[in-house]
Amino acid sequence: xxxxSNPHPLLADTLHRVVRRYRLPATPDTQAxxxxxxxxxxxxxxxxxxxxxxxxxxxxTAPSPGQQHRFTHALADLIHEALLPIGGDAAFQAILLRHxxxxxxxxxxxxxxxxQDRRSIHAIVNAIxxxxxxxxxxxxxxxxxxxxxxxxxxxxDWSALADTARxxxxxxxxxxxxAQGLARLLASAELDRLQRLAALGSDIEVQQYQALLDRxxxxxxxxxxxxxxxxxxxxxxxxxxxxAQVLDALAEVLNKxxxxxxxxxxxxxxxxxxxxxxxxxRAKSEWDAVLLRQAAPIxxxxxxxxxxxVEVKASIDAATTDxxxxxxxxxxxxxxxxxxxxxxxxxxxxxxxHGASLADLPTEVSELPGTVLYCSDAPADTRPRLLSxxxxxxxxxxDTSLEYAGxxxxxxxxxxxxxxxxxxxxxxxxxxxxxxDQYQGLYKVRSLMVxxxxxxxxxxxxxxxxxxxxxxxxxTSRPRGERVQATPRTSGTIVNDDATLERCADELGxxxxxKP
Length: 516
Hints:
The protein is α/β, with parallel strands linked by helices.
């Protein structure tokens, strides 16, 4: 277990004893996919087969024809499952439609930059026709047209906006600055793209594509999207508040059990300063909660060492998605100069951290336990999903899988051998390495994850009394030999009752009101 030099023994003991209810076994259950195909659960069969293949390669053994057969059959079943009109995967169906229809591909490409294009047009129009500017103009037909221009911008009616702009230019009655602004508007590629996007919206296949997207989540900017985002933000804030309370309790216990030792404290929302020399590219730049231990002051200024970095997630899948960014964030912190003191902004104010403490942080996955925790209050899935969402989508969205899916969607019965290029890419392509290693990735992330109630219980229980007989397997909620059983792919969101969310919101509001 990687901990700072001379760690508090109770800290190491607590982290060792806390139950890991999210943990997976090092090897998945092979009963669901090794001997017999499971058409009802192809994702699990794929996960097991991929892990068996990875193990074979790691042992220097060529994957067997049986493994290849199970892989292609399970991938075909996964594609058929995803294409179901009821209960299928709307995200995959949208990708397939985009792959097949050029106009849908164009629509998707234009949609990807719609926010940036809108901002650009808004800036141009506001510079010419903002209501505050129009109030200073004399009331006339030009002012009315400029007001209409501004209203059309707000309504996102891009064709009518372009027509109105041309009418204003043709009138010749505008001042030079306004005329130049309208000329820039009409010549802008952004306006051309927005008009083209609006025109494509009437295409039947584009409408089908948008309907598939709407099945996944409400459109950006709509009331439903705003409400969904607000609920997610509130839930995330509630979980972070609970995590901070649990860590505060840990710091209090550590300080009480060793009052003569340097004190511990907890800071939240610790932002990485720009002075860090490492790469910030796709690296975590803010840590949800950090347990610190006071170090020797430098030039009379209090300094601290990092003992435990904590990330709070409202769901298990969120931790898996976040892991690569977390590792890059650790590398950024570990790039610190050992002789430099770095100032970090936190919710509790600025804190000074020793560079040596940061430079000693582990960056290898095997060394993370004891230094990094993922915390959540999500219930443990008794039958975990063994194929990660990212790996599943990479398998489905490969060109080979999309070509196969297109044939299935058109009523054909393609040959399973058509999917063999995906198998060969899995074995040889660096781009597929993350898929080949995906189960081990899930295993490592879940081993770092604890439920907040379990962490709180470990803190409250204190060191365990010695037991006679065989010691208990601490740090896991399952016997070592137990295997995780296969589970169908499911989706859903965790919903807290309204009363709980309201209580959390009230507490957050009260904290903000009394914050100095």
